[in-house]
Amino acid sequence: MTGPEMATDGYWERLPLLARDGASGLFPTPWREAVSGLISIAAILAVFGLVFAFLTLAERKILGRTQNRPGPNRTGPGGLLQPFADAIKMLTKEDIIPRTADRVLHFLAPVVLVAFSLIAFAVIPFGRRLLPVDLDSGVLYFFAAGAGTELAVFMAGWGSRNKYSLLGAMRALAQLISYELPLLLAFVPVIMASGTLSTRGIVAAQGGWTDGLIPRWHVFTPWGFAGFILFMVAALAESNRSPFDLPEAESELIAGHLTEYSGFKYALFFMAEYFGMCALSGMAVTLFLGGWQAPCAFLEVVPSYVWFALKLLGLLLGFIWIRATLPRLRIDQLTRLAWKFLVPLALINLGSAGWAGPLQPLRWAVALALVALPFLLIGRKLTAGIGPRIYRYAAP
Amino acid sequence: MNAVLAAIALLVLGSAAAALALRNLIHSALLLILSWLGIALFFLWADAEFAAFAQVLVYVGAVSMVVLFAVLLTRQSRADLSVTAQSRGRAAAGVGAALAVAAVLAFAVLRTPLPVPSGLRSAVTVRQLGGELMGPHAGALLLVGVLLTVTLLGAVTIAGAGRLPPDGKDQP
To answer: Contact B65/A150, CB-based, under 8 Å?
Structure first.
């Protein structure tokens, strides 16, 4: 971040840092470091707070369109102000604490959850020069931060003193623990290939183009492709998103560990869910999709953080699309998917990545088989005895 | 610097003491987890990033879940959650066992020659740590893994043993 290094970048690339340094320059010298740190934190809070607000709107709109209804469209032009109306509603709602609840744990759970899901953002490189904290073991830090969220879910479920809450919390814990393993195993090949745990190093390892055309992103390698799909499936489960949203399961468990929460604490849980989703998607972009790297050489004039944002938005829209498409899994199917499919597949993928054989086509075949075979097997199993459907009255 | 260390020590020891003093098992477990978090903070203070994050990942993420699940699976109701010593003899035996473990640990720590680095050395990178763990210390790492698994299975067996119905058949 010194002069000669920055001189090669365009003006827009440097703009966020210039703004930060300009603002912290207003303060006396001993404060500057602390102030620029605070500015980074405030920027992350503001940007991802807005992303959270409009992601809820985008989700409701897209779900609505998928289900042939308009979605929220009354507040502001095209429903654009809906998130702010929701925020005001949540803030002004009564905050109910059950009389028998464990008051301390009931209060602490949403706070701990949001705190842990926020600190995960610290190691994600948002742009060429936009890495809040450059840690030598950044990836480990990210997943250590994620470990705290399980604790918060338990606190919410147990502290509410409600059987639905406790059941939901236990489901959530079983799910989070089961899917932690494939999540971690899926990105180990990335660590092996780039030889570092630092997020900056991982993105740097994906720079450049093979034959000047195909980016050297990890997703374009056989093990990276299979690893990316496995990572995204596990990430869906880790962020409690449909089709793995059993812990909430509005229709079965009356929202699980959220049952006894109302008002802004309830909103905090959703904030944490969306923050977690953004953080995991950001990590997926960093690990597999080349981070802030541009897809073509001539497109590098566009600032790196724009590329990061585009990739992140793509993944988030994918999350919403999946929610609109797939039905919820049952708890036994959920754990079976993790232990019988994802963990063995991730291990095979790890072997395929570790074996530096010359047969690139064979490795591609292994990777494609890893993705396609379970899909076919699960599909066969789920539809066994159901199809083909016979239409008795409708014309074929 | 020493004020920070004192604060961390206070957090670790204070939460551990509170965990012992409280009668509610869940509160004790959560305070124990806070104490483990304090140890991670200590590692961070000592510039051992990798150890700190591994501590959080393993203890706050995994071991805490084992503890909480064990509590919830072995207690029949919330009334069971408050614990008291069954007799004076048992309490004495517990304190004695704890002191014995502490004595063994203290003996081991005191007898192990720890090289004191002369002056400042360059920080150990994650790559070096990985090389050490997978090379010379791979056996120890495997042993610890096996030990943890055996402990877990033993805990499940003990928890399940008292719950069999009189006819000896497993509950569904």
So the answer is: yes
